[in-house]
Design a protein that fits this description.
Blueprint: H1 4-18, E1 24-33, E2 45-46, E3 48-61, E4 66-71, E5 80-83, H2 96-108, E6 117-123, H3 133-149, H4 155-170, H5 177-184, E7 189-194, E8 200-204, E9 210-216, H6 224-243, H7 257-263, H8 270-294, H9 298-314, H10 321-331, E10 336-342, E11 349-355, H11 359-374, E12 379-383, E13 390-391
Parallel strand pairs: 4-6
Antiparallel strand pairs: 1-3, 1-13, 2-7, 3-6, 4-5, 7-8, 9-11, 9-12, 10-11
């Protein structure tokens, strides 16, 4: 469901900033991961879904080589300019590096972009929420490039090139999950994705008389990028140690939990051992969770969500007090089927499945108790599972 008000305001902004007419409007969603956290770079299975929250852009081709960007959400940055003949990462260009990176990645992949464009965007994803505003912007840019320059519509390629942009242009060593969930989203379904092979299947999310509620800690998570890269390195170290006894092993998540327990002492560093344990067990939880969902056992799915949070807190150590308080307060409320942190961690959001008749109590009690314990005021979003990118105007 597109937000017509956002589209209308975006068209007005585009005219104010860039003049004229002829712009086309595109949308790409944010995502939330229901279970399977921090394993997309370890060859594991993830289970994200696209949201109806996302990023909109009004875009128009230019005659010259210039790229001009403007964000309604970051109006203080003004119009930021770049050039097709000088596509380099510049810290001062801020958010536009993600979009520039996608243009760079498409050209690296052999797609000719002969002229620049004007690009005004507006996002409905809460900032710093961990709901993948960056992946949404990358997929959105790819969608616009495919439509404006006549490239074959290929959303798997779009996801891959978005990841390449973030890894090689921006320098954030992310896995494929966020871009894939945004690019391949389908209404009312989550994506059971094998990140090692990109094999995937859609699974309905039959939550029935319940709602998907995202709660934002509203705690800035400055640590997220550096800690994310640390966790990747720790997992890579664990894998190298395991390969000394299992040379054929290509990824941590190839191991089942029982195999891991037999081999875990091969990992010399106890911290790296904990990181690997999370990856292996989270992969097993995710596979089991999707089986439970397919059987209509939403209660069992919720318990696995809770267990995922505990593992992220204790073994992977990417949670924080604020996320823990949100999860623990949610677990106390009858009618909460499952609650866990989602995203990179150290702030951001929890994802919760809450029975309809408990939503008001959930918002009231979790909000009150969280503020008492942390001094912060959380934000609550009742969200729907939406489609992938499209032209919307």
């Amino acid at each position: 469901m597109t937000d017509q008000k956002v589209i209308e305001e975006l068209r007005k902004t585009f005219e104010e900033k860039f003049g004229g007419e002829g712009e086309r409007v595109f949308f790409a969603p944010g995502r939330v991961n229901l279970i399977g956290e921090h394993i997309d770079y370890n060859g594991g299975h993830v289970f994200p879904c696209a949201l109806t929250l996302g990023t909109y852009a009004a875009v128009r081709k230019r005659e010259d080589r210039k790229l001009r960007f403007y964000s309604v959400n970051l109006a203080e940055d003004g119009v930021i300019e770049a050039d097709l003949d000088d596509l380099t990462y510049k810290k001062e260009d801020g958010w536009t590096n993600y979009a520039k990176g996608v243009v760079w990645a498409y050209r690296q992949a052999g797609m000719d972009i002969p002229a620049g464009f004007d690009f005004a965007c507006s996002g409905t994803i809460p900032p710093k929420s961990g709901l993948s505003s960056s992946a949404s912007l990358e997929v959105l840019t790819g969608e616009a490039l495919m439509k404006l320059y006549g490239f074959e519509e290929d959303q798997v390629r779009n996801a891959k090139l978005g990841q390449i942009a973030e890894n090689q242009f921006v320098g954030m060593n992310c896995g494929i999950m966020d871009q894939f969930a945004s690019a391949m989203g389908q209404k009312d379904k989550a994506i059971f994705l094998n990140t090692a092979t990109l094999d995937f299947q859609y699974a309905p999310v039959p939550i029935g008389e319940a709602k998907l509620v995202i709660v934002n800690t509203n705690k800035p998570h400055e640590l997220a990028n550096s800690a994310y890269n640390d966790r990747r390195r720790e997992c890579e170290t664990a894998l190298k140690d395991l390969q000394k006894v299992r040379p054929e092993l290509k990824a941590l998540c190839e191991l089942k939990p029982e195999e891991f327990e037999l081999l875990s002492n091969a990992i010399a560093d106890p911290v790296c051992r904990k990181r690997a344990k999370h990856a292996v067990y989270e992969d097993a939880r995710t596979t089991e969770a999707v089986e439970k969902l397919n059987q209509g056992d939403i209660a069992a799915f919720g318990k696995l969500m809770n267990a995922s949070h505990v593992s992220l807190r204790d073994d992977f150590e990417v949670s924080c007090r604020e996320l823990d308080v949100l999860a623990e307060e949610a677990w106390k409320i009858p009618g909460v089927i499952g609650a866990r942190m989602t995203g990179g961690g150290f702030g951001g959001c929890t994802v919760n499945i809450v029975e309809d008749n408990s939503v008001d109590t959930f918002v009231d009690q979790v909000g009150k108790n969280y503020t008492e314990k942390t001094g912060l005021v959380p934000s609550f979003y009742i969200v729907s599972i939406g489609d992938g990118p499209s032209e919307v105007g």
